[in-house]
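// run 5 | inverse folding | seed 20
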């Protein structure tokens, strides 16, 4: 195993490193707006500012599911290009002081409600539209158990494994081993649970599935970090069954395209159900 010769200084100081790999050029150790930038606003009550990364897709899948269930008429979704640093613009930071997508404004309430953190957005919308959140108290708690599990697991998969396996300037064995172990352990947590349950909460498709699928479901389908073979995702048979079933849902297929700026089909900004027809 390669040994680091790095000795941490007494007090760490930040130096801009253009060669620090993916995100290296945009990250800084301070918060707050870096420049003035207005966000656009469409005609619907819900205004989403996001990007079709796994955390963004959680929310667009729920919004499309709400439309599919005829509980929501429509919404606007505006792309936030994180590589262009849109997340540090003044209007975006006013919605999310943490400068991360997804962020949502609900103008149907007075005063308008800001929302950030994908888990909080999922819970707010599920409560507001009384959908995809079990009514039974025990099942509802189980749903929240898995929703919080996902929020805690995403930094391991994305910030840990994804960063060191796919984005770091060079592969380093120690962190790749550390995070691969954790990701495989979490895949096994899911696999054992899904061996006993159709969805994360019994046979009810909930916001817990919508939170977990864009990360672990897409990973299992081999579409995240091109790490399918490395992680031997095919061996998690119950995760495979669950991931494939969710991938077939029309709302999931639409949700994946919203705020997407890459690939064959993309819908950077979405303003109407009809926008999909043009793709
Ligand atoms: N815990 C947050 C994480 C959000 C997050 O990490 N978003 C990423 C994209 S997936 C982002 O906006 N990154 C921009 C940056 O780091 O500057 C959530 O679930 O909403």
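// decoded
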């Amino acid at each position: 195993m390669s040994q680091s010769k790095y000795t941490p200084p007494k007090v760490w100081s930040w130096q801009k490193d253009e060669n620090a790999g993916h995100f290296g050029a945009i990250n800084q150790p301070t918060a707050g707006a870096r420049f003035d930038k207005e966000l656009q606003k469409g005609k619907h009550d819900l205004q989403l500012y996001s990007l079709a990364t796994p955390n963004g897709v959680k929310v667009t899948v729920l919004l499309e599911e709400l439309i599919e269930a005829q509980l929501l008429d429509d919404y606007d979704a505006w792309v936030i290009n994180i590589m262009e640093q849109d997340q540090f613009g003044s209007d975006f930071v006013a919605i999310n002081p943490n400068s991360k997508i997804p962020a949502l404004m609900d103008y149907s309430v007075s005063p308008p409600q800001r929302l950030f953190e994908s888990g909080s957005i999922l819970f707010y919308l599920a409560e507001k539209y009384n959908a995809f959140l079990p009514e039974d108290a025990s099942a509802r708690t189980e749903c929240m158990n898995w929703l919080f599990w996902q929020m805690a697991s995403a930094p391991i998969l994305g910030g840990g494994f994804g960063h060191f396996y796919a984005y770091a300037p060079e592969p380093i064995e120690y962190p790749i081993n550390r995070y691969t172990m954790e990701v495989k352990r979490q895949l096994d947590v899911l696999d054992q649970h899904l061996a006993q349950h159709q969805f994360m909460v019994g046979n009810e498709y909930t916001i817990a599935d919508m939170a977990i699928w864009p990360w672990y479901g897409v990973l299992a389908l081999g579409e995240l970090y091109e790490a399918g073979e490395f992680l031997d995702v095919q061996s998690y048979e119950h995760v495979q069954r669950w991931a494939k079933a969710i991938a077939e849902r029309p709302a999931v297929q639409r949700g994946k395209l919203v705020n997407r700026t890459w690939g064959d089909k993309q819908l950077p900004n979405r303003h109407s159900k009809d926008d999909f027809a043009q793709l």
